[in-house]
């Protein structure tokens, strides 16, 4: 344990596990007094000979101030919830329409989104070219204070100099761009990298203000 975590700031604090990801080796707990959240590392569970907790597990723990906020440094007891949390369903995209889905007898008509189609005489014609799309910058909509969270880079495109972060908790993907990375002291991030980010904006269109590698 680092020196900064040896300085316990609170003892016998009651908290509830917000989430814990065994594959990442850490999670967060909500403090019962409503003062916020605390970071929970797998090493603390191992020291207490406890299994990975599920969402809703009540713990009595000690806290210390780490470099990035309150952290759990010891667990005295853990009580699983009476009813285990149900698995959360992920949003599924609707299937794309294909040429095979076209009703019989209409193969000669043009299908939106497809290429050249034969007419009744057997001749083909090409669909008109689409006009170039205008690049629009996404701006954060004021929606309260910025929130710090964790996620994984879904992709970062060097051409558009922008990307998306998949949050570890349920929620919309988070947009970021080259300017955000420069403000965070980063040159580039790779697909699949785990990050800590500060996001603002509406719940359905959050935008990252800061991105840190973890």
Whole-number radius of gyration? 24 Å
Number of strands: 12
- Helix content range of the residues, please? under 10%
- What sort of overall outline do the alpha carbons produce when their principal axes are compared? elongated
| Main beta sheet | 5 strands, antiparallel
Provide the residue-averaged pLDDT: 77
Helix and strand composition category: mainly beta
In terms of quaternary structure, what is this?
single chain
Fraction in beta strands: 35-45%
Distance between the termini: 18 Å
> Within the largest sheet, what's the order of strands?
3-2-1-4-5
Number of helices: 2
Name the poorly predicted regions. 99-114, 137-143
Q: Strand-and-helix sequence, N→C?
A: EEEHEEEEEEEHEE
Structure characterization notes:
- The protein is mainly β.
- The protein is 6% helix and 39% strand.
- It has 2 helices and 12 strands.
- The chain has helices at residues 42-47, 178-183; strands at residues 8-21, 26-31, 37-41, 58-66, 69-79, 117-118, 124-125, 147-157, 162-167, 174-177, 194-200, 207-213.
- A 5-stranded antiparallel sheet has the order 3-2-1-4-5. The protein has a 5-stranded antiparallel sheet with strand order 10-9-8-11-12.
- Strand 9 and strand 10 form a beta hairpin.
- It is elongated, with a radius of gyration of 24 Å.
- The two termini are 18 Å apart.
